[in-house]
Amino acid sequence: MMIPNWGLKRKFITVFVVLITLPTVFGFIIYYQTSVALKDQAKEDIIGNLEKNEQNLSAIIEEVTNMTAYMTYDKEFRTFFMTPEAETHQLAYKNAVDGINGYFTFQMISKPYVSSVLLEAEDGTILDLGEPILNGEKELAKAAIQKSGAPLWSDAYHVTSEWEGEKEVISVSRAINDLNQINNRIGMVRIRLDHEKLYRSIESQDSSTKWSYFVLSNEGSVVLHSDPSLVGKQYPETELATWVTKGKASSYRLETKDSNYLVVKKELQGTNWYSVAMVDEGEVVQELYHVRNSIRNMIILLILLGAVAFVGFYRSNIRRIIELTKQTWQVSNGDFTASVDVQSRDEIGILGMHFNKMVKTIQNHINVEYRLKIKQKDSELKALQSQIDPHFLYNTLDMIRWTARLENAYETSRLIERLSSIFRMKLNNGKPWVQLKEEINYIKNYLELQQSRLGDRLQFYINVQDDVKDNYVLKQLLQPLVENSIKHGFKDLPRQGIIRIHGYRSYNSLYINVIDNGWGFTNPEKIGIHGYALRNLQERLELVFGKAATLEKTNLTQGASIQIVLPLIDMERVKNIQRELGE
After folding, report:
1. Separation CA 464–CA 459 (nearest Å)
2. Are residues 255 and 144 in the same domain?
3. pLDDT, tens only, 397-442
C-alpha cells in the first residue's frame, strides 16, 4: 500500500472517511490508556521527585558539613582559632582573616542558601560573616560541644536578621578540635542556611503532577516547607506526622474529609530528618476528566476540519501547494532562481510572496557575505604583511635573556623570559583557543611581571582544579579582568592589592572567579572603565557560546568579584565551534 505516493485528492478522501468512521473508537481507546498511564505516572512522579529532592538536600548537607570539616585542617582557620587575642594585630593573623573572608565570600556567592557564618575561638574572639544575627544560640553551642567534633544539624528555628528582619534558618554547628591534639577544642563554627532559599534550591517540579514536598524532624516538627508559617512548628496533620516518624512502610495513603493523598517518605542520612512528598489523588482524577473532554473536543474538531478541507479547499489550493512545494525543493537543492507565480492575495498567495522575497534575500546575503569574506581575507593578508616576524622577535628576546645571564643579571633574565612567554601566548600562531593551563600560565607570568614592578603593593593567588586544566578557553580570557584590577581597582589603594583566581568544575560547566580587594564598582568613573572591558568580554562570550556562557559581577565589602561560567570544551568541540563560526 503506497500511501506516501498517493495524490492529494485520494489522501483527502481517505482522511475524511477515517475521521468520520473511527474517531469515537480511537477516542475511547486513548482515554482508557491515558487513564491508566496517568495513574501510574502520578505515583512514579512523586517517587522520582522525592528522590531528586532528597539527593539535592543530601548533597547540600554534605557540602556544608565538609566546609566545617575543612576548618580543622586549613592553616588559615587554625591560625584564627589558635591566635591569642593579644596577637591579633600581627600580619599572619590578618592574612588568615582575609583568606577566611575570601573563602566564605566565594561560598556565599556560589551557594546563595548560605546565609551567614559564625566563627568563635576559645578565647572569645568572634568572626561573623554574612548577614548579622541578633539572637543568641547558646543551646546549639552546648549541644555541639557534646558531639565532640561531630557536626550537629539543627531543626528550623527563628532568628532576627539586621538585614531581612524576622526569618527562619537551619544551621550546622561543630566544635573545631586541634589537629595535633584531637581532644583539645580550639573553637566553634556555625553555618546558617536561609530556609526559603534552601527550599528553592532543592525543590524539583519536573512533572506535570501537582505535588507537595516538605521535611520533618524525628519529633514531627517542620524543618522545610513551602509554607513558611509552618516552619519550626509541629506538623498540623498528627496522623501523617506519626507515620513519618514511626511508620516502617515507605508509602502511605492518607484519608481526610476533603480528599485522599498518596504519601511517600525517605530518611535523610546524617540527620534526624525525613523527606516527605504527597499528591492529592483527587487532582489526578480531575486531570483525567480534562483529558476526556479534550479528546471529545478534538474528535469533533477533526471531523469539522476534515469536512471543510475536503469540500472547501481541494479545488482551489492543491495545485498552488504543489507548485510551492516544487519551488521549495529547488531552493533546497541550491537553485536560488526559484520563484512562485502569485495569482491571489489569500494565505497561500501571501506565502508565495514571502517565499519569493525570502529567496531574493538569501541570494543577496550570499553575495554580500562572499564579498565581505574576500575583504576580510585581504585585510588579514595586509595585517600579516605588516607584522614583525615572530621568530625574529622570539630569537631577539632569547639573545637578550642569555646576554643578561652572562652579565649575571639573573632577575633581568627572568623578567625577559616571562615577557617572551607572554608574547608567544599573545600570538599563539593566530589561534584563538588555548588550554586553561596555558591561560593560567600566561596570567601568572603577567602578574609576576606586574609584581616585579609594583613590589609589595600587589599579591596574587591562583587556585585551579586539576580536572579542568586541559579544557579549552578563549585566548586572553582573564587578562582584561586582571589588568583592570591592577590599573583601576588598585589605583591609590591604601592597602596591599590582592587578586584571587579560582577555577573549578560544577556539573558540566567551568567556573572561573576573579576576586580583588580594590575599590570595587562603587566609583562611577571606575564603573565606566570596568564596564568597557566587561562589555567586550561579554560580547566575545556571546559570539562564541551564545546563552551557554555567563559573566556576572558582584560588589564585595572590600573589592569586587567577577564570575565567568563556560561550557566544558575539548579539542573536538573547539573544531565544531570553529566550523560553525566559519573560522
Report:
1. 17
2. yes
3. 566 666 666 666 656 666 666 666 666 655 555 577 889 998 898 8
Mark whether 568 and 452 lie in a shared domain: yes
Is residue 25 domain-shared with residue 125, that is, in the same domain?
yes
How long is the chain? 583
Spatial separation of the C-alpha atoms in residues 437 and 414, rounded to whole Å: 20
DSSP state of 398: H
C-alpha gyration radius of the chain = 34
Of 316, 351, 377, the position where a domain reaches its end is: 316
In a shared domain, residues 355 and 285: no
Q: What is the CATH number of the domain that holds 182?
A: 3.30.450.20
Residue 48 cell numbers, joined: 522520582
Residue 552 is part of which domain span?
Answer: 431-581
Residue 143 CA to residue 345 CA, distance in Å, equals 81
pLDDT, one tens digit per residue, over 346-389 is 777 787 787 788 877 777 666 655 554 544 444 444 444 444 44
Lowest mean pLDDT among 165-169, 322-326, 435-439: 322-326
Q: Pick from 316, 348, 377: which residue ends a domain?
A: 316
Closest by Cα among 135, 117, 138, 119 to 127: 119
- Indicate the DSSP class of residue 120: E
Query: Is 287 inside a domain boundary?
Result: yes
Q: What is the largest CA-CA distance in the chain?
A: 100
Please report whether residue 326 resides in a domain.
no
Q: Is 325 inside any structural domain?
A: no
Residue 382 in domain: yes
- CB-CB neighbours of 72 under 10 Å: 20
Q: Above 80 in pLDDT, residue 550?
A: yes
pLDDT at residue 162 in the model: 85
Both 50 and 136 in one domain: the answer is: yes
Q: How far apart are CA 457 and CA 436, in angstroms?
A: 27
Sheet of strand 497-506, all strands in order from the earlier edge strand to the far edge: 458-464, 497-506, 509-516, 560-567, 550-555
Give first-to-last CA distance, the chain, whole Å.
Answer: 49
3-state secondary structure 538-579: HHHHHHHHHHHCEEEEEECCCCEEEEEEEECCCHHHHHHHHH
Q: Are residues 103 and 226 in the same domain?
A: yes
User: How many CA atoms does the CB half-sphere of 458 hold within 13 Å?
Assistant: 21
Beta bridge partners of 222: 216
Q: 336 is written with which cell numbers?
A: 536560488
pLDDT digits (tens, 9 = 90+) for 283-311: 665 666 666 677 777 777 777 776 676 66
**Which three three-digit cell numbers place residue 439?**
591561560
